[in-house]
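Table S2 (text version). Query chain:
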Amino acid sequence: MHIPDGFLEARVWVPAWVVAAGAVAVCSKKTTDTLGQRTVPVMGVTAAFIFAAQMLNFPVAGGTSGHLLGGAIAVSLLGPFAGFLVMTVVLLVQCFIFQDGGITTLGANVVNMALVGTVAVYPIIRLANLVNRGRAGYMVGAIVAAWVSVVLASLMCALELALSGTSPARVVIPAMVGIHAVIGVGEAVVTGFLVAFLLRTRAELMYVKMRPAASTTSSSG
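Corresponding structure-token output:
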């Protein structure tokens, strides 16, 4: 899903850079305003995990492969603003050190995978936790958000390619969204296992807090 240089026209990648830069400015301010003692270490560990996980590919139908996006994991631990910054840092490292994605298209890749992958899907996790503020709510929210993040990111990528004339919309949109709907299942499974593990072992790390278990009190009289 990383778009290389030369695949997008300037009329597409320039606005994408503007949107990405604006998102970085807003999310940096929001993260700084709410920066807690635990936030920085968790951001570092999350970034390292997502970077490593994105290097591992799993096979999909037709000889294609997919890799973890990680947006739903980042937003589950850090919320939408810090989660976006973590995803952006991962994309920056991949672009400038590993040449994974182009420099001109970096803004589009940030919009697709970082902005859509975190800020756009955070309401799903939030809504699930409003309905059920327990492990079940968090699990359902994270799993659905993980799948949606991959599909939405692929749709954004397809639209950008179509607007640039790289491929007709009638071809690139079904192809991109169809294959990433399958890849999203893998994303949802990995996210579900990881969130379940964290809820059992370090539930206090989760960004949206679960409702505490009801305590029983006894009175003498």
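Notes on Table S2: The mean pLDDT is 88. The beta strands are 57-59, 65-67.
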